[in-house]
Amino acid sequence: MTDGLALATRGLQKRYGARPALVGLDLSVPTGVVYGFLGPNGAGKTTTMRLLTGLIHPDAGTIELLGRPFGRGDRHRLFEVGALIEQPSFYPYLSARENLRSLAAAGARTSRSRIEELLEMVGLRDRARDKVQTYSLGMKQRLGIAAALLSDPRLLLLDEPSNGLDPAGIVAMRETLKGLAASGKTVFVSSHILGEVQQLADVLGIIAAGRLVREGPIEHLLEGEGLIRVRVAPAEVVAARAILDAIVPGTTSKAEAEGGWVSISIPPDRAAEVNRTLASAGIYASGLETGNDLESLFLELTGGDDTANHEGTFFGAAGSGTTAAGRDAGSGTGGDA
Ligand code: ATP
Predict the structure, then answer these.
(1) Closest ligand 1 atom to 39 CA
(2) pTM for this structure?
(3) Distance, CA 203 to ligand 1 centroid (Å)?
(4) Ligand 1 and 192: CB distance under 6 A
(5) Pocket of ligand 1, candidates 12, 14, 15, 19: which has the most ligand atoms within 8 Å of its Cβ, to mutate?
(6) Which domains can be identified in the chain, with CATH numbers?
(7) Is the CB of 18 under 6 A from ligand 1?
(8) Which among 16, 32, 33, 189 could bridge 202 via Cys, Cβ 3.0 to 4.6 Å?
């Protein structure tokens, strides 16, 4: 059942006192992909990560890592598995290089050149001699990623790895992780940030209330989740919505709070038709974007969990009328209409 999988869980359950955190989680993570583990706050992502690394133990269910069962007493196997869970902890009075060397001394043999390669990869080479206590949050996070990669693991488990990274750091990390998957390694990344997962992952697992609600290659999950957004003058929003609703009977357009943006869930290849139909009614769009509506799928599957609203990362964008460049960057084919 779990052949060819780098990571599998079956019926995984965990509760904290009376509160259930996982209620029977079945994950199937193929080898050689970036797997995005997506869920709203409190869904059970960190609990899963902690179980996968033996920090806590399941109440029921099984875990298989790299084709072999993983249970109590198997933490030594984590040399084959790199992990970055919660805040990475380092000796604050040692430098990045010294921290990596001390980790290497305690674990699997690692050459000095490997440490230098990793410092370069995560962009810390110039600061590698500075004490970690002088590092920013993002720099500590980069060092955490380097530490997770130290033993050149076949499977990498990263909990919210973009925490604290600046945009350039996020792009660099994405390239690094995709490169690792292209070389045959498996990268399991948890996140609650849709746009990030959409750009990074090959396969997606969506968790809600301690249970997997959808899993599969991202392009399959997004089939039928097309989205077109147009920006019109604020005074034309009502008329534009009526026209858009008529293009696809049964579909209701959405108006965003600001900026005159209106969106409708139809396939991206109908963008020209949308533009033409609006123009022939005398409404000229000043912006047009196409993409996939992972947000709608996510809200539908997770029951629109409003705890996620507190984060304000991606849910904030939907209602804030951000510009074409500011929203869904890279996920669509946006441009001026
Ligand atoms: P987030 O995106 O906010 O980090 P998450 O998906 O990682 O959330 P978990 O941290 O795994 O979610 O939490 C799952 C559930 O278990 C939540 O209801 C949470 O309140 C609860 N929980 C987590 N850790 C503990 C703990 N140590 N003691 C009691 N309850 C806990």
Answers:
(1) 6
(2) 0.76
(3) 23
(4) yes
(5) 19
(6) 5-215 (3.40.50.300), 224-320 (3.30.70.120)
(7) no
(8) 33
pLDDT in tens, the chain (337 residues): 567 899 999 999 999 999 999 999 999 999 999 999 999 888 999 999 999 988 899 999 999 999 999 988 777 777 788 888 877 788 999 999 998 888 888 776 788 888 999 999 888 888 889 999 998 888 888 899 899 888 889 999 999 888 878 888 888 888 888 988 999 999 999 988 888 888 899 999 999 999 999 899 988 887 767 788 899 999 999 999 999 888 877 777 888 777 888 888 888 888 899 999 999 999 999 999 887 767 777 877 787 644 333 322 222 223 222 223 333 333 333 333 3
Three state DSSP letters for the chain = CCCCEEEEEEEEEEEECCEEEEEEEEEEEECCCEEEEECCCCCCHHHHHHHHCCCCCCCEEEEEECCEECCCCCHHHHHCEEEECCCCCCCCCCEHHHHHHHHHHHCCCCCHHHHHHHHHHCCCHHHCCCEHHHCCHHHHHHHHHHHHHCCCCCEEEEECCCCCCCHHHHHHHHHHHHHHHHCCCEEEEEECCHHHHHHHCCEEEEEECCEEEEEEEHHHHHCCCEEEEEECCHHHHHHHHHHHHHHCCCCCCEECCCCCEEEECCCHHHHHHHHHHHHHCCCCCCEEEEEECHHHHHHHHCCCCHHHHHCCCCHHHHHHCCCCCCCCCCCCCCECC
Say how many Å lie between the CA of residue 156 and the centre of ligand 1.
21
